[in-house]
Write a structure and sequence with these properties.
By secondary structure, this protein is an alpha+beta fold. Helix content is 18%, strand content 36%. The protein has 8 helices and 22 strands. The chain has a 6-stranded mixed β-sheet, with helices on both faces. Strand 2 and strand 3 form a beta hairpin.
Length: 426
């Protein structure tokens, strides 16, 4: 594969963020290593280093998993513990990979890696079929609103590349996925170890007529994954140079979290409710006529009104919801269980405020997706529906409508450790 391109082309490339998930030893790290190796996205010194590591550990072939397993404990155990991020590009797209661990006790790491993903690769061992972690990770992918799922049925070489095995797992997963809110999923039979259907079409599975994993990653349509209707600009910093050249300059820098804002648009600043119009949109020294999600930029207003970090600039006739009673699904990450009436810091966009857990409506049973309403607490890696009461109203869109404005994290007041990741319900 020819991966040569200049820096200007690289900057203009579309970025696809994807995460990998599966049970332990399903081959996630080997898959990513194979993807990087076969797409010629590795430097020669990296290959030499991993080759030497493989030889030192007495392995007969190059262990591709070592390209992503960076922690000493991971190399020793041959598993992934932390979330490993890798970056590479082809002539069609840039990619950020989040390689997430398969152990149940690291489900929270999977949530971290998947929170910003456009696509999730769910790996299934062809010998074992669908297991509890397959269901858990698929449920998390559904709750996190990941738009695209690639179900890679791995280790097909260990079942003699049997089409019937592939079709059986495909049907079982499809039956399960109909209970989830997964709109776009595809199945690919692969062997990460031998490279079947990773970058090149497999000669061992002529019965499979679909695209390779690389083809799907390069061509799956992600342009419409964002909410382009509801304009949401999150203010992160107020720019006041206070120099002779820019004595009266005041701009609000941040990121478009939804929709489109244009010069001369009538806007409202929340929570103050003051109205103005957009005077200019800057990106460095460039002047833009419009700002589109998910671009970062600076916005100047025609009126000198009070705007500060954490405020949201929206269209005057299209404002988000506002409440102090937040109904949400949450993945509990804390080592201590979630109890009712606990106090936390809730971080929503750039805002931090106090909150208390008022109700636990139910906990999800991962195996059959039933709701356990008799539960009174959540343990680490549990997923449930809660109600929070915040000290002041927050402005949000439902998570299904906008992943950016509909998400939050909970922080333990005493330790400042993140203990929960939440998705606000409509």
């Amino acid at each position: 594969m020819d991966v040569s391109f200049n820096s200007e082309d690289y900057l203009k490339m579309e970025l696809l963020r994807f995460t990998t998930a599966g049970s332990v030893d399903d081959g996630k790290s080997t898959l990513i290593g194979r993807l990087l190796y076969d797409s010629k996205s590795l430097f020669q010194d990296q290959i030499e280093s991993i080759t030497n590591t493989s030889i030192r550990k007495g392995e007969q072939t190059l262990n591709l998993a070592y390209f992503t397993d960076g922690l000493k404990a991971e190399l020793e155990q041959g598993i992934t513990i932390d979330v490993a991020y890798r970056y590479f590009a082809t002539p069609k797209r840039k990619f950020i990979i989040a390689d997430t661990p398969g152990h149940i006790q690291y489900t929270r790491n999977m949530v971290t890696g998947a929170s910003t993903a456009n696509l999730a690769i769910i790996l299934i061992d062809a010998r074992k079929g669908i297991v509890e972690q397959t269901k858990r990770h698929s449920l998390i992918a559904s709750l996190l609103g990941i738009p695209h799922i690639l179900v890679c049925i791995n280790k097909m070489d260990l079942v003699d590349y049997d089409e019937e095995t592939f079709e059986k797992i495909k049907k079982e997963y499809t039956d399960f996925a109909t209970k989830l809110e997964i709109k776009d999923f595809h199945f690919i039979p692969i062997s990460a170890l031998h490279g079947d259907n990773i970058v090149e079409k497999s000669t061992n599975m002529d019965w499979y007529q679909g695209g390779t994993l690389m083809y799907m990653l390069e061509n799956i349509h992600i342009a419409n994954d964002h909410n382009f209707i509801d304009a949401r600009f999150n203010v992160q910093y107020v720019i006041r140079p206070q120099s002779d050249d820019f004595h009266d300059y005041r701009a609000y820098s941040g990121i478009m979290m939804g929709g489109v804002l244009r010069v001369n648009d009538a806007v409202k600043v929340l929570p103050s409710g003051f109205s103005s119009t957009i005077k200019a949109i800057h990106f460095g020294e460039e002047n833009w006529n419009e700002a589109v999600v998910p671009r970062s930029c600076s916005i100047l207003l025609n009126d000198d009104i009070d705007v500060s970090r954490g405020d949201m600039i929206v269209r005057e006739n299209n404002v988000p919801k506002s409440t102090q009673d937040v109904d949400a699904m949450i993945c509990w990450m804390g080592e201590k269980p979630l109890e009712l009436n606990q106090k936390f810091i809730i971080k929503h966009n750039c805002n931090e405020l106090k909150a208390i857990v008022k109700e636990l409506h139910y906990k999800m049973d991962i195996n059959n997706l039933s709701r356990l309403s008799e539960e009174t607490s959540l343990q680490m890696n549990d997923i449930g529906r809660i109600k929070l009461r915040t000290t002041k109203p927050i402005f949000f869109d439902g998570y299904k409508k906008n992943r950016n404005t509909g998400s939050f994290i909970l922080i333990d007041e005493s330790t400042m450790v993140t203990v929960g990741a939440g998705m606000i319900l409509d």
